[in-house]
Amino acid sequence: MQVIARLHSDFTQKFGIPRQSGLVDELEATVVFEPEFRNPDALRGIEGFSHLWLIWEFSQARRPEWSPTVRPPRLGGNVRMGVFATRSPFRPNPIGLSCVRLAGVELHSELGPILKVRGADLLDGTPIFDIKPYVPYADSKPQALGGFASTPKEATLTVDIPPELLERIPPKKRAALTGVLAQDPRPAYQEDGERIYGMGFGGVDIKFRVEGSRLTVVSVEPS
C-alpha cells in the first residue's frame, strides 16, 4: 500500500472531529497528492462526480493488538459491540472510509492538482490510500438497515460564542466551527456541566462547556 495523498483540514487533534463524514458540510479540506502522483491525467473526468470515496489510514490509532469488541459512542460508550459491526478507528487494519463532496479541482504550480472537498471527518495530515468516485446508482441504498446507528447524529446543541470571542475566529472558519460544536464533540458518556473541554480548529484553540442543550465557548486563543 502506498500513500497517494494527504488530506489537510482544520483539525489538529482527534477531539472534535465529527463521528461520520458529511455531517458538517461547511467543513473545508484539501487533498494534496504525493509528488509521484501529481499527474493531472490521474484525475481526468473526476469533475463530473459530486462526491468521492476516500480510503485512508487512522494514522493516530495504530495499536500492536486488536480487540474483537469496542464501545461505540452512539451507545453511550458503555455497551460493547463487535469491531466489524462498528466504524471504530481501533481495528486490525486501521483503515477508514469517508464520503466527501467534491467542491473543486485546482492546479497548483508546485503541488499539482489539488482536490477541494467538503464534509471530511479527517485529521490534518491524514494519509490517503485511494480515491474513488461515488456512483449513486450503485452506492446509494435507500432501504438499507443501519443497525444500532440507523438514525443520523443530529446537531443537538445550541452554540453560544460571545461576540468578543467570535472576532478571534477567522471569518471563513466560523460556520464550520459552529457546525462541529453543535454536533456535541464530547464523549457520549460525559455530561458534566462544569467541565471545560478544549479543541484545536483552524489555527485557534477553543475551550467550551456544555450545560443542558447549550454549548458556550469560554475562550479562544491562537494555537
- Provide the spatial order of strands within the biggest beta sheet: 1-2-7-6-3-8
Based on DSSP secondary structure assignment, what is the total number of beta strands? 12
Task: Classify the helix fraction into a percent range.
Answer: under 10%
Provide the β-strand percentage band: 25-35%
* CA-CA gap between termini: 34 Å
H/E element sequence: EEEEEEEEHEHHEEE
Shape: globular
Report the total helices.
Answer: 3
Mean pLDDT: 91
Major beta sheet, specifics? 6 strands, antiparallel, barrel
**Gyration radius, in Å:** 18 Å
Low-confidence stretches: none
Structural class: mainly beta
Quaternary arrangement of the chains shown? single chain
Which key phrases capture this entry?
223 residues, mainly beta, six-stranded antiparallel beta barrel, four-stranded mixed beta sheet, 3 helices, 12 strands, globular
Overview of the molecule:
By secondary structure, the chain is mainly β. Helices cover 8% and strands 34% of the residues.
What is the compact description of this entry?
This protein has about 220 residues and is mainly beta. It has helices at about 135-140, 165, 175-180, and strands at about 5-10, 30-35, 50-55, 70, 80, 95-110, 110-120, 125-135, 160, 195-200, 205-210, 215-220.
Give the SSE map:
Layout: E1 5-8, E2 28-33, E3 51-57, E4 69-70, E5 81-82, E6 95-108, E7 112-118, E8 126-133, H1 136-139, E9 158-160, H2 163-166, H3 174-182, E10 197-201, E11 204-211, E12 214-222
Parallel strand pairs: 9-12
Antiparallel strand pairs: 1-2, 1-8, 2-7, 3-6, 3-8, 4-5, 6-7, 10-11, 11-12
